[in-house]
Amino acid sequence: xxxxxxxxxxxxxxxxxxxxxxxxxxxxxxxxxxxxxxxxxxxxxxxxxxxxxxxxxxxxxxxxxxxxxxxxxxxxxxxxxxxxxxxxxxxxxxxxxxxxxxxxxxxxxxxxxxxxxxxxxxxxxxxxxxxxxxxxxxxxxxxxxxxxxxxxxxxxxxx
Length: 159
Prior knowledge:
mainly alpha, three-stranded antiparallel β-sheet, 9 helices, 3 strands
């Protein structure tokens, strides 16, 4: 399959980045799950679009950031949701693959919710980006405490 293939839409490649993949999604979901112990699938699918936004991840990883609900965060930083819907839809495959990977490796069980079975620990061998995501994961977990309806509404995800 080449880039000149007429079957591929330009959107396919505009949203793709080698920087965002199932491995990064597994790090993000596994790190957040360490704090929440369980997550609904709907909430787990919101993690990757959050970490795909570098500024949002840096902001959440900062020690100066106060924990807040998603609505108040977006009131002070509306730029964090400028293209959240596009990030959500472009990360769905990576997120689902990451959940399958974490399940296969024994880090989580999935029945009606994702439940941590073994804590996912990010070490320095994972790299700087993974370390930043792990550092932001407690704030991401705090953001996800809001109801699914409120999260999807505030993050402007169109289903």
